[in-house]
Amino acid sequence: MSTPKSALSGSPKSPRIISEDQQSAFQDRVRQSVSRRAYELYRDSGLDGHELENWIRAENEILQRGLEVRESGSWLALNASIPDSSADEVEVYLTPNRVTIHAEKHEPIKTENAQTHGLTQREIFLTEDLNTEIEPSTASATLKDQKLTVMVKKRYPLSTTAAPSRTESAKA
User: Fold this and answer.
1) pTM exceeding the 0.85 threshold for the entire prediction
2) C-alpha distances in angstroms, 50 versus 41, 42, 153?
3) How would residue 3 be classed by pLDDT, with cut points 50, 70 and 90?
4) What number does CATH give the domain 16-156?
């Protein structure tokens, strides 16, 4: 099996894999989106003292689930439907235990008589906690026919030597 090429360069035909030096800015964007939504929830309710509940609800609304995770040998394949976005509008953020996808989604603005009158832009975030640790530096991503596929190598322990059994320890 061939090794996928890294998409760290962020070529226009591939979604961009967030590099280590861009992680802080990406996390800030997620936090700002959640913060804006939490404030809207507060403003709409008019009730003080519900900051934590508003934050959790905002996180659940902003960070949507919807990634399919499949294991294949030493690789994980992460798949998601990303409609109305081009590859250069999709970002993939990976940590050893989590993946977060950010996409700009363009939707037409229609007038009363169903004529298109420009585009509106909105963000979507998809996230998934992983049961298997991954090696983010091995990731590659493609977007074809509105289907995002991220391939990333599983992280294995550095040492595979087993601890001696009790009977072996007792003989020594």
Assistant:
1) no
2) 10, 8, 41
3) very low
4) 2.60.40.790
